[in-house]
Write a structure and sequence with these properties.
The structure holds 2 protein chains of 2 kinds. Chain A is an all-alpha fold. Chain A contains 13 helices and no strands. Chain A has helices spanning 2-31, 49-55, 58-91, 97-109, 112-125, 132-138, 140-156, 160-168, 173-184, 186-202, 205-210, 218-225, 232-259. The radius of gyration of chain B is 24 Å and the shape is globular. In chain B, helix 4 (71-103) packs antiparallel against helix 10 and helix 12 packs antiparallel against helix 13. Residues 1-11 and 296-304 of chain B have low confidence and may be disordered. The chains are: A mainly alpha, B mainly alpha. Chains A and B meet through helix 1, helix 3, helix 4, helix 5 and helix 7 of A and helix 1, helix 2, helix 5, helix 6 and helix 8 of B. Chain A: It is found in: Cell membrane. Chain A: It holds the Pfam family BPD_transp_1. Chain A: It comes from Bradyrhizobium campsiandrae.
Chain lengths: 265, 304
């Protein structure tokens, strides 16, 4: 009986794994196939031509760089302003704390399409369009709430005596943050960086409206590949490359996800 | 810390100190710039006719009147609610069930399943429909050829039911991982003592779930419900790329209407529509807060 249920459980997990992997597998396979007629390569046969084409395209290479720049900037920004704010929420009560938390919640769930028009106008006026910096900044609207929300849970699970001891030892607030708090909640910072990374990496509505003529990230460079004769192999190769950093992030945080991270609302 | 105060109590009684505002200030400055200012601007646009941005003409509530009087708005609203309802009723129980099964599994299996199930979360949103269209393509796709071979008569372009099925399955593929990760985070935070107590009382599996696991997961699950509700309610890129709202507007959701107007640079009407949607978001967030704030301890309130 016991072994039967565990076999059923494994079968279910295998089914879920197949459900997740099969659509992705087809994308990966297509990325290794030449999908347009080319001299020397039979159409529909295995080939590395799509990946070689990416290497030879300055536009596509630049888009990969743009994506990495904006996402790293965004994660750094969200952690930088999110950590002190999360500390404030976890350790103190102050005038308007609940209203502020509610405001953050509202902006987290506001669909990006709702804010896209005024953000386009505002960023065009101050010259922040067509640059990765603009995307990094604008993605803060949903990532700062996420960062504060997750970090607050981790900080709150550290006993307050921990802070008090550090302050009695003569640490200033910044010194305490970097030397004591950050190492103590390192898994929390990893999980926060993971969520900020994925939500920023996959967002396309704001990224599109801010990069109409330049500074395109991977997602928009892929969009630009669609045309009269779309090279699907190239599209899929770019998609596979777009997955690599995310998969690396999942790999780094896998144990924290498996242990279950601290989370509160 | 005074003796006799339980750790839980001292945890909830946070010192009242308005200097904490200095710590939230940097975050607030950025949120003002990317969130509050655009919101003020969109409110302003929504009352004007802006053929060009330098030439505003005050029209008052005209754009709002157009929206609330159009049948199309209510039809889209109903479709979006239906989509969210279907998506939640599939993903939430399924996600909880997987998390419960994971909790009894070996560590290696847990991390393998979690890594697999979170993979779709890192796929850029504009590529999700591309992957799925490729997958269900009747000539080249694995699922598409399988369905043709089975003689299922599958036609996601012209059969509304089939478009809906594709969208629901695709959304489940995309987001199931988030529900599982959140539910698992909730379950694994339950101390072993709870299960030992339940074992002593000879509680059934269902009782353990109903009276221990579910209440302990309440916080994370409410967050999962909120995130999944809003994201599916305002599904945009994925739905647009699959069938552009078709066939015959059968999958024209709220965001697709707004996206259409923004694409046409109709500043005034799209601003008014944005405001209407934002008010929906505000209502949802407020309802959520009211429903979950019962756990907030009274001690949090500053003494007056």
């Amino acid at each position: 009986m016991k072994s039967l249920t565990s076999i059923l459980r494994i079968a279910l997990f295998a089914g879920i794994g197949a459900f997740i992997l099969v659509p992705l597998a087809q994308t990966i396979i297509t990325s290794f196939v030449s999908t347009l007629p080319r001299a020397g390569i039979a159409e529909g046969h295995f080939s590395l031509v799509n990946y070689l084409n990416i290497l030879q395209s300055p536009v596509l290479k630049q888009s990969i760089l743009n994506s990495i720049i904006y996402v790293v900037l965004n994660v750094a920004l969200c952690l930088g302003v999110g950590l002190p704010a999360a500390y404030a929420f976890a350790r103190y009560s102050f005038v308007g704390d609940r209203q502020l938390f509610f405001l953050l919640l509202v902006f987290r769930i506001t669909p990006t399409v709702v804010l896209s028009l005024p953000i386009f106008v505002l960023f065009a006026q101050i010259g922040l369009e067509n640059t990765p910096v603009g995307i990094a900044l604008v993605h803060c609207v949903f990532n700062i709430p996420i960062a504060i929300w997750i970090l607050e849970g981790f900080i709150a699970s550290v006993p307050r005596e921990f802070d008090e001891t550090a302050f009695l030892d003569g640490h200033s607030l910044p010194g305490f943050f970097f030397r004591h708090l950050v190492p103590a909640i390192a898994p929390g910072i990893g999980v926060t960086a993971f969520f900020c990374f994925i939500f920023s990496w996959v967002e396309v509505v704001l990224a599109r409206i801010l990069t109409t003529t330049g500074g395109k990230p991977i997602t928009m460079a892929i969009n630009a590949l669609f045309g009269f004769r779309t090279d699907f192999g190239l599209v899929m190769a770019m998609t596979v490359l777009a997955l690599v950093p995310g998969i690396a992030m999942i790999y780094f945080v896998r144990n924290h996800l498996a242990k279950g991270f601290v989370i509160r609302t | 810390m005074c003796p006799g105060v339980s750790p839980l109590q001292s945890f909830d009684m946070k010192p009242y100190d308005n200097r904490a505002w200095f710590l939230v200030l940097p975050a607030l400055v950025i949120m003002t710039f990317v969130g509050i200012l655009p919101l003020v601007a969109v409110t302003n646009y929504s009352f004007q006719d802006l053929f060009s941005l330098n030439n505003p003409y005050w029209v008052g509530l005209d754009w709002y009147r157009n929206i609330v009087r159009s049948e199309r708005f209510y039809a889209s609203l109903a479709r979006s609610f239906l989509f969210s309802a279907i998506v939640l009723s599939i993903q939430l129980p399924l996600g909880i069930w997987i998390a419960l099964l994971l909790q009894r599994s070996h560590r290696f299996i847990v991390s393998t399943v979690l890594v697999l199930i979170t993979l779709p979360l890192v796929v850029p949103w504009n590529m999700i429909p591309v992957i799925w269209l490729n997958f269900i393509n009747p000539n080249a796709g694995i699922a598409g050829r399988l369905l043709t071979w089975l003689g299922a008569g599958f036609d996601y372009k012209f059969n509304a039911l089939h478009t809906w099925i594709v969208l629901v399955v695709m959304d489940t593929w995309h987001w199931l991982g988030l529900v599982v990760v959140l539910a698992y985070a909730g379950i694994s935070g339950i101390p072993a003592a709870y299960y030992q107590a339940a074992a002593i009382d000879a509680a059934s599996e269902w009782q353990v779930f109903r009276f221990i696991q579910l209440p302990k997961m309440k916080t994370v699950l409410s967050m999962a419900v909120l995130l999944r509700f809003m994201d599916s309610f305002m599904i945009y890129i994925e739905a647009f790329r699959i069938n552009a709202g078709g066939p015959d507007s059968a999958t024209a959701f709220l965001s697709l209407d707004l996206g259409e107007e923004i694409q046409a640079f109709n500043y005034g009407p799209s601003a008014a529509r944005s405001m209407v949607y934002f008010l929906i978001v505000l209502t949802v967030a407020w309802t959520f807060k009211a429903a979950t704030s019962t756990r907030a301890p009274v001690a949090l309130e500053p003494a007056t």
